[in-house]
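Summarise this fold before class:
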Amino acid sequence: MILKRLRHETSERHAALEQRLPLVDPQLSREGYREILEGFYGYYLPLEARLNVSPVWAEIGFDFAERRKVPRLEKDLVVLGSAESELARLPRCAELPPLDSIPRVLGCLYVVEGATLGGQVITRHLQANLGITPETGGAFFAGYGAET
C-alpha cells in the first residue's frame, strides 16, 4: 500500500528527472556520461557525509556503510579519465535535504536505494550503447550487482 502511494506521489518528479538526465538517450556520449557522473558525485559526496554521521543508524541497527555510493562513483570517474586530484575540485551540492529525524533519514535512503534499482535499466543501456560495464565505468549504476 505505502509503496504504491510513494510511486504515485513521486511519479511526476521521476519523469522530470529522467528528462533532465539523458542516461538512456541513444545520443549520450562517454564524455556526456562522465559529466553526469560528476554531477552525481557532487551530490552524493556531501549527502553521504551527512548520512554517515547520523545517529539514526545506531538507533535502528542499520549499517549504512554498506550502502555508500561514493566509492563506486570515484572508481567510475577515474576509469573514465578523471584524475583523482580533479575529483576534489568538482562542485559540491550545498542544498541537501534535512536529515534530522528517523523518517527523513529513511526517506532519503528510500530515494537513494530506489535510484539503485533504476540503475539496473541504465546499466543495460550503458553496456549496449557505450560498451560501459560495471568494471569499465558503470559500477555506480550497477549497484550491488546480483544483490541489488
